[in-house]
Amino acid sequence: MLRSYFRRVPLLINRVDKHFVNTTAKKTPSLDNYLAALGKGLDFFGIHGPTADEITKDLDLSNKTCLITGANSGIGLEMTKVLSSRECTVLMACRNPYAANMVAKNVCGNSHRLKLYEVNLASLRSVKKCSDEILKQQAKIDILILNAAVFGLPWTLTEDSLETTFQVNYLSQYVLLMNIEKILAPDARVVIVSSESHRHVSWDFNNQLTPTEAMVSLPKSQYTSIRAYNISKLCAIHFMHYLSYRWLNSGKSVFCAHPGTFVKTRLCRNWWPYELLYTCMRPFSKSISQAASTPLYCATSPELNGLSDVYYKDCRRCEVSDLAQDLHLSFRICDLTKNLIRDRVSLTEEARVKELAAFPDQAKHTIDENTLVANYTG
Ligand SMILES: NC(=O)c1ccc[n+]([C@@H]2O[C@H](COP(=O)([O-])OP(=O)(O)OC[C@H]3O[C@@H](n4cnc5c(N)ncnc54)[C@H](OP(=O)(O)O)[C@@H]3O)[C@@H](O)[C@H]2O)c1
């Protein structure tokens, strides 16, 4: 076995060389390009699994509509490209739709299959506006991929007074889903792009019994960017459990998918040591196309019909951490989430009442707070 691997080494060198000459060398040569080429060469041994293209090769998705958050970059962009090439209509929910449009037109062959929506997940107001637009324009969504995320940010609060990583990676996408739930197809699939890093959260027993805002939306004194990221990914798995319970007697299903570790995307852009680490790990980690394969497998594979509430890694079913398995905790986290949202919506409404007092002409557009809360929390 070892001997057969060694026999492949000259082929590997050849492959790295060829890939570098054919592709990356056309751009400015850089460490990143060399490492990408080396990674491609190493994958000659097939260690990183299939690509998104390979996993969806036999599918015709011409009658499907898929909404993807963070569809303009990295794994989200790759999924957009592959799904649109299978004739799926892709609704790209992006922070900067103009930039996203330019990127998508360059990368995706079937750009007529794409539609852009603007959303800033660091703002509940923006999430509401985006979901209203989607509800107005779309009759049905078959696949929803909650993919957007941030990592490595310094501590910041959003305009809704929540820690940014928590709100962007989890809470706002919870709100988006609940807002558009009524147009999810009866057999819709929801995929939450998750991460193995959910395993690194430790909460003591008392905290698990009564989760608080400070445990999920970290105050500055307890903040590290890794901790905030891990917590957001743990909450997302609990959201999967909650949804699958909510949809128990329906045809809707929900999965979590870990795309891969140290996949070199723009996720690591916020802090140079992370950028360096991800660059150095490039030869040993999945390519973006390989990373997109597990979420797309969950979103489209007929093999998963009838299943729900499952976590996938490398296109295989996988156990989540003990903390992520606790269904009681799932309900407590969802209750906490609803309370956090309710508080924020009331605050928004309070600000609006003040605004109306100053500009009475707008009174005819007053929104009923109960409807608003129901929209946000489902
Ligand atoms: N890369 C990895 O090694 C890895 C490992 C495990 C899990 N994952 C997960 O894979 C998913 C995709 O990540 P990626 O690696 O492809 O990273 P990426 O290239 O940085 O993509 C993240 C996307 O999220 C969007 N986003 C960030 N903040 C936003 C906001 N406030 N409002 C709206 N959109 C926002 C980004 O939009 P902008 O372009 O506007 O910033 C971007 O489109 C994430 O859920 C991540 O946690 C990645």
Automatic annotation (TrEMBL):
Any one Pfam family match given in the protein's UniProt record, by short name: adh_short
Keyword list, A-Z: NADP, Oxidoreductase
Highest taxon of the lineage: Eukaryota
Keyword presence, Calcium: no
GO molecular function: oxidoreductase activity
InterPro entries per record: NAD(P)-bd_dom_sf, SDR_fam
Keyword Oxidoreductase: yes
Coiled-coil spans in chain: none
Family: Belongs to the short-chain dehydrogenases/reductases (SDR) family.
Protein name per the record: WW domain-containing oxidoreductase
Organism lineage: Eukaryota, Metazoa, Ecdysozoa, Arthropoda, Hexapoda
